[in-house]
Write a structure and sequence with these properties.
With 154 residues, the chain is of the alpha/beta class. The protein is built from 3 helices and 12 strands; from the N terminus they run βββββαββαββββαβ. The strands form 2 sheets. Strands 1-2-3-6-8-9-12 form a 7-stranded mixed β-sheet. α1 runs parallel beside α2. The longest helix has 15 residues. The radius of gyration is 15 Å and the shape is globular.
Protein backbone atom coordinates (compact mmCIF):
# COMPACT_ATOMS: atom_id res chain seq x y z
CA UNK A 1 0.00 0.00 0.00
CA UNK A 2 1.21 3.50 -0.79
CA UNK A 3 1.98 5.85 2.06
CA UNK A 4 0.88 9.50 1.92
CA UNK A 5 3.57 11.92 0.82
CA UNK A 6 3.33 15.63 1.46
CA UNK A 7 3.17 17.72 -1.70
CA UNK A 8 2.44 21.41 -1.25
CA UNK A 9 -0.39 21.90 1.22
CA UNK A 10 -1.68 18.39 0.96
CA UNK A 11 -0.78 14.75 1.50
CA UNK A 12 -1.05 12.67 -1.68
CA UNK A 13 -0.28 9.01 -2.21
CA UNK A 14 2.92 8.39 -4.13
CA UNK A 15 4.17 5.33 -5.98
CA UNK A 16 7.78 4.95 -7.01
CA UNK A 17 8.47 2.77 -10.04
CA UNK A 18 11.71 1.13 -11.09
CA UNK A 19 12.17 3.78 -13.77
CA UNK A 20 12.73 6.28 -10.90
CA UNK A 21 9.61 8.22 -11.85
CA UNK A 22 7.34 9.36 -9.04
CA UNK A 23 3.65 8.86 -9.54
CA UNK A 24 1.13 10.76 -7.47
CA UNK A 25 -2.38 9.35 -7.31
CA UNK A 26 -5.60 10.94 -6.11
CA UNK A 27 -8.33 8.34 -5.66
CA UNK A 28 -11.99 9.31 -5.97
CA UNK A 29 -14.68 6.89 -4.85
CA UNK A 30 -17.63 6.94 -7.23
CA UNK A 31 -21.03 5.77 -6.06
CA UNK A 32 -23.57 8.03 -7.80
CA UNK A 33 -25.84 6.19 -10.22
CA UNK A 34 -28.88 7.90 -11.77
CA UNK A 35 -29.73 5.44 -14.51
CA UNK A 36 -28.63 3.17 -17.33
CA UNK A 37 -25.04 1.97 -16.89
CA UNK A 38 -23.56 5.39 -16.05
CA UNK A 39 -21.62 6.10 -12.88
CA UNK A 40 -21.25 9.82 -12.20
CA UNK A 41 -18.86 12.04 -10.26
CA UNK A 42 -19.14 14.21 -8.25
CA UNK A 43 -22.40 13.62 -6.44
CA UNK A 44 -22.44 17.21 -5.12
CA UNK A 45 -20.38 20.40 -5.36
CA UNK A 46 -16.82 19.61 -4.28
CA UNK A 47 -14.51 22.49 -3.41
CA UNK A 48 -11.95 20.01 -2.07
CA UNK A 49 -12.05 18.12 -5.38
CA UNK A 50 -11.22 21.38 -7.19
CA UNK A 51 -8.18 21.87 -4.95
CA UNK A 52 -7.03 18.29 -5.64
CA UNK A 53 -7.25 18.86 -9.40
CA UNK A 54 -5.15 22.00 -9.05
CA UNK A 55 -2.48 20.20 -7.02
CA UNK A 56 -2.38 17.32 -9.52
CA UNK A 57 -2.02 19.82 -12.36
CA UNK A 58 0.89 21.48 -10.53
CA UNK A 59 2.52 18.06 -10.08
CA UNK A 60 2.13 17.21 -13.77
CA UNK A 61 3.59 20.55 -14.84
CA UNK A 62 6.52 19.98 -12.45
CA UNK A 63 7.37 16.82 -14.39
CA UNK A 64 5.78 14.24 -12.10
CA UNK A 65 3.25 11.67 -13.20
CA UNK A 66 -0.12 12.77 -11.76
CA UNK A 67 -3.09 10.40 -11.90
CA UNK A 68 -6.72 10.93 -10.96
CA UNK A 69 -8.11 7.45 -10.35
CA UNK A 70 -11.89 7.05 -10.18
CA UNK A 71 -12.98 3.83 -8.42
CA UNK A 72 -16.59 2.98 -9.25
CA UNK A 73 -18.21 1.12 -6.38
CA UNK A 74 -21.51 0.29 -8.07
CA UNK A 75 -21.81 -3.03 -9.87
CA UNK A 76 -24.41 -1.86 -12.39
CA UNK A 77 -22.12 0.66 -14.09
CA UNK A 78 -19.96 0.24 -17.19
CA UNK A 79 -18.81 3.83 -17.79
CA UNK A 80 -18.26 7.12 -15.97
CA UNK A 81 -19.32 10.64 -16.82
CA UNK A 82 -18.62 13.87 -15.03
CA UNK A 83 -21.81 15.21 -13.44
CA UNK A 84 -21.51 18.71 -14.88
CA UNK A 85 -25.12 19.44 -13.96
CA UNK A 86 -24.27 18.97 -10.26
CA UNK A 87 -20.86 20.71 -10.28
CA UNK A 88 -19.98 22.50 -13.53
CA UNK A 89 -16.82 23.99 -11.97
CA UNK A 90 -15.46 20.48 -11.30
CA UNK A 91 -16.13 19.40 -14.89
CA UNK A 92 -14.32 22.49 -16.18
CA UNK A 93 -11.42 21.88 -13.78
CA UNK A 94 -11.11 18.29 -15.05
CA UNK A 95 -10.78 19.58 -18.59
CA UNK A 96 -8.06 22.01 -17.50
CA UNK A 97 -6.24 19.34 -15.44
CA UNK A 98 -6.27 17.00 -18.45
CA UNK A 99 -4.71 19.75 -20.59
CA UNK A 100 -2.06 20.26 -17.89
CA UNK A 101 -1.05 16.60 -18.14
CA UNK A 102 -3.08 14.87 -15.44
CA UNK A 103 -3.98 11.30 -16.42
CA UNK A 104 -7.56 10.30 -15.66
CA UNK A 105 -8.36 6.64 -15.21
CA UNK A 106 -11.48 4.81 -14.12
CA UNK A 107 -11.91 1.26 -12.85
CA UNK A 108 -14.70 -0.77 -11.37
CA UNK A 109 -14.06 -2.30 -7.95
CA UNK A 110 -14.18 -5.89 -6.77
CA UNK A 111 -15.34 -5.80 -3.16
CA UNK A 112 -15.09 -8.61 -0.62
CA UNK A 113 -15.00 -8.73 3.19
CA UNK A 114 -11.19 -8.89 2.95
CA UNK A 115 -10.18 -6.55 0.15
CA UNK A 116 -11.16 -3.93 -2.36
CA UNK A 117 -9.30 -4.47 -5.62
CA UNK A 118 -9.45 -2.79 -8.98
CA UNK A 119 -11.63 -4.48 -11.56
CA UNK A 120 -12.02 -3.65 -15.23
CA UNK A 121 -11.15 -0.38 -16.91
CA UNK A 122 -14.07 1.92 -17.69
CA UNK A 123 -14.24 4.83 -20.15
CA UNK A 124 -14.68 8.38 -18.86
CA UNK A 125 -16.93 10.83 -20.67
CA UNK A 126 -17.24 14.57 -20.24
CA UNK A 127 -19.51 17.03 -21.99
CA UNK A 128 -16.94 19.72 -21.15
CA UNK A 129 -14.29 17.92 -23.19
CA UNK A 130 -16.83 16.98 -25.88
CA UNK A 131 -15.40 13.47 -26.02
CA UNK A 132 -14.28 10.58 -23.92
CA UNK A 133 -11.06 10.98 -21.98
CA UNK A 134 -8.28 8.81 -23.31
CA UNK A 135 -7.59 5.65 -21.34
CA UNK A 136 -4.36 3.85 -22.04
CA UNK A 137 -4.73 0.09 -21.76
CA UNK A 138 -0.97 -0.13 -21.24
CA UNK A 139 -1.45 1.34 -17.76
CA UNK A 140 -3.54 -1.61 -16.60
CA UNK A 141 -0.64 -3.84 -15.42
CA UNK A 142 0.65 -1.08 -13.12
CA UNK A 143 -2.67 -0.56 -11.41
CA UNK A 144 -3.91 -4.16 -11.44
CA UNK A 145 -1.32 -5.04 -8.81
CA UNK A 146 -2.55 -2.32 -6.44
CA UNK A 147 -5.17 -3.18 -3.87
CA UNK A 148 -6.50 -1.64 -0.72
CA UNK A 149 -6.66 -4.29 1.97
CA UNK A 150 -9.05 -3.77 4.82
CA UNK A 151 -6.19 -3.58 7.34
CA UNK A 152 -4.65 -0.69 5.36
CA UNK A 153 -7.78 1.42 5.81
CA UNK A 154 -7.16 1.96 9.53
Amino acid sequence: MCKPWRYGWSKRPRLTHTDHCNTYIEVKNVHLWRGDDWAEFPDTVTARGLKHLGVLGDMAEAGHRAVLLYCVQHTGCARLRLAADLDPAYADACALASKRGVEMLCFSCNISPYAITLGRAMPIFSTTLNSSLIFSASLWPRFAACSIRRRDLY
